[in-house]
Amino acid sequence: MSHARYRSRENEQVSTTVLSAPLYKRLIQYKRLIQFRSLKSRLLLGLSATLLVLAATVLGLTWQAGQSMLQESNVTHLRYEANMLADEITQQVQNRIEALERLSQTMGTASDAEWVQYELAKNDALLSWFEGVVVSNEEGTLIADWPSVIGRVGLETRDQEYFGMLRGTRSVYVSEPFIGRASQMPLVLIGIPRLDAQGDFLGFIGGVVRLNSGGLFSRLATIRLGNYGYSAVFTASGKVLYHPDSQRVNTSIENRERHPNLDLALDGWLGNGVGRLFGEQPLYQSYSQVWPANWIVGLYLPVEQAQTPLADFIHRLWWIWIVLALFLLPVLWGLLARILSPLNLLEAQIGEVGQGRRSHVRLDTSMQELQQVADTFNRVEDERQQLLDNLQEREAFLDSVLNSSPQGMFVANFGGRITYMNPALLNMLSISAETQMETWLEKIHPDDRMGVADLWAHSLKTGKDFVRQMRFINNDETLWLDVHARSVMLSQQGHSIGLVGVVKDITERRQQEALQRWEAEHDPLTGLLNRRGFLRRLEEAFADFQKTSTPSALLLFDLDHFKPINDEGGHALGDEMLRRVAQVIAWEVRRSDHVARQGGDEFGVLLPSCTLVQAQRIAEALRVAVSEVSVTHEGKVYNVTLSMGATRFNENDGSVEEALTRADAASYEAKDRGRNEVVVKLPSEFDPLSLFD
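Above: the chain sequence. Below: its structure as C-alpha cells.
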C-alpha cells in the first residue's frame, strides 16, 4: 500500500444523518446557543452582562448618592430640632433659676428656720416648676423645705457634690443626678447660693426637679422622629438625665471613645454624624448644648428607618430594569441576527469550498472586517491548492523511494501510530500491510514491550530521536531489531508532526556478539567457565557480600593421578577425562553455582548464598562423584580423585585474592594428607606465611 493511499484511508471521515439538513442545522444552532458556543449567543450574553453591570453600577451609585443626601438632610434636620429643644430646655432652666433668685432676694440673709419655712409656704407657685424647694444653712443642713416632707429637714448635704460646688463657686449650679434620700427617686437640684453683704456663704436655696416626671423634660416625651427616633439628655460628665428607656436614667456612658459624636458634644462642641448608642443599630445623631445647666440634648434617628424610602425606590428601579431587559433581549437577538447574517453566509460558503462545490467565497457586504476575512480565506485557499499539488508530487516521489529502498522503513503520525511500512520492513517482519498495528505490536518480546512504549511516548513528546534495540518474535524465531526514528520538525512552527524510522535486522550480529562473549569467559573443552569468567563472578559475589553480607563459599581443587592418563593414554584420553569430570561436577552442584576450569586439571566452584556447612556437604558429594569417574585405554581403567580446599568470604578480606589464597592452601593441605580429601580453611585458622614453609 502506498504512503498516500494509507494516509488517505486514515483521514477518511464517514458521516451519516437521519434528519433533514435544515432541521439538523437548526438543532446544531440551538445546541450552540444553549452552550454559548455561537458568536451570536456570546454577543447576546456579553450585552446582557454589560446591561447588568451598567444597571448595577447606576443603582449602586444612586444608592451611595442617596445615602449621602439622606445623611446630610437628616443630620441637618436633627441639628435644627436639637437646637430648638436645647433652647426650650435652656429657657425652662433659666426660668427656674430666676424664680429661685427672686425667692433668695425675698428671704435675704435670714436664718430663722420658722421664718424661712413661712416664706417658702408663701411661694407655693414654685411647685409648678419644682418637686420641692429646700433651704440649707452654711453647714449644709436643710433647715426648711416646701412642701414639707417628713425626714427632709435636718438632712446633711455637706457631703453632696452640689453643696461643695455652690459653696466653692458662689454661683448658680445644676447638680449631677442623684437618688433622693427621702423620695428614693432620681433628682437634680438647681441651686442658688445665699450670700451676705460681704459675700460670705450662708447656705443655698435649691429647687428639686424629678427626672422621670415634671415639666422639665415633658416636651421630649412628645417628640416623634418616625417610628423609632427619640431624644435624650446627658450631663457634661456623661450621666443620662432623660431617655425613653427609664432604666437608663442616672446611668453613665461607658467607653466614650466608642461614641465619637457624643464624646465631642460632652467636651462642649456640636457633635453631628452617624454612630451607635448603647449598642443599638446605626443612628443619625445631632447634639446641642444647654449651657445654664451644662447639659447636652441629643436627637437620634435610625439609619435603616431613614433609608427605607430610598431602598423602596432602588427596588422599584431594579424591577423596572428587569422588565426593560426582558423587553430588550428579543430586540437585541433580532438585531444581532441581522448584523451577523453576512457571517452566516460566509460560513456556508466556506463549507461549500471544503466540499469542493465552489473555489472561492464571495460576499456582498459593507462590513469591512468580513470582507477582509473573505479575501484572506481566498488567498489561503489558493496557497493551499498549490501546496496540495506540490504535496501530491512529493508523496509520489516518497512512495517510489520508500518502496524501492532495501532498508526497512516506516512513517508514524503525531499521535504515535505507524501509518506506513515499506515492503522491505513488511517482508522482514513477515506481516502484511493490512495487519493491524495492535496485532503485530503483540509480537514484540514481553521483556522489551514496556520499555519500547515508554521511549516511544517520550520521543513523541520531546521531539528527541527514538533509538532502541528490541526483540521481535516472528514465527517462533526471535529477531533482534535496531530501530532509529527521528522526528520530522516544521521549520516555522518548530513542533513535531511525526516520526520517520529505519529498522535493521541485527539478529546475526547479536548472535555473533553473544558467542564471542561466551567464548571469552568459557573453556572450549569442557564448556565450564574459564579463569576470566570465574574471577568476574567471584568479584560480583564478593561485592554482594560487602554490601549485604550475603555468604558465599569457594571450592578449589585439582585432579589426583591425572598425569599418568596424559602420559600413557595421550592428551585425547586426558581431555576425555576432563570432560567427564566437568559433567559430573556440573551435575552435582546447584543451578545457581558457578563451576570453572582454571587451567590444566585445576577446577573451582563458587557457591553463592551458601554457608560453609552447606559447602562441606557439596564438596564431599563432589569428591565421591569424581572418584567414580573413569576412562579406559588398551584394557586399563584410569580413575582420578580430588584434593579440595574450601573456605568462605570474611569481613576482613580486602579482595577475592585472600579467599583464593586460603582455598588454594587448603587444597595443598589435602594433598599432603594423602589426597582424596576435603580440607576446610576458616579465615582465623589461616596463616599466609605457611605458604612459604
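The first strand starts at residue 132 and ends at 136.
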